[in-house]
Design brief:
With 174 residues, the chain is of the alpha+beta class. It has three helices and ten strands.
Amino acid sequence: GYAYYNTSILNTFITKNESIQAKVRYEKDYKKQWLYAPRPNFTKAKIKFDLFPKNRKATGTGDFEIKNTFDTNIETILVNHPKLSKRKMEIEGGFTIVKQDKGSHIEVVKLNNPLIPGETRKLTYTFEIENKGFENSESDIQIVKNGTFIDNFNLFPSFGYSLSQELTNPKERK
């Protein structure tokens, strides 16, 4: 009962096959349209976060500047969100979510006003990581009582198609 509660109630139980299928779906749904699509680049960052290692929790905010370094307007953006307990993204000028894929933490957003070549805008991202119980697969060891290691990919979004989310094992690809 205790293991089931931790792996299936407090956390989402994901089998290896479900994980593989999610990667396959990501490639099929996003690669063709988004692999070479223009996307904003992060040019400045100011990050503040608070760690609560005893509770395996962190909260924070990132204030970023994003810039269109392409020679064409950017109207829509594929946003890859990290797996977080809570998150909120704001982009100067606003946006509308046109597609939300909660299973893979993906959103497609349409900017209220296109980001023109060379233009910069402010992006604010707030987050909370809270580890509850233990997971059924790889346990999140970013925040632990005796040490913490967090990289930006686990806290903040990235834009565009991510090759790192594809299947890499040739056997799994069959």
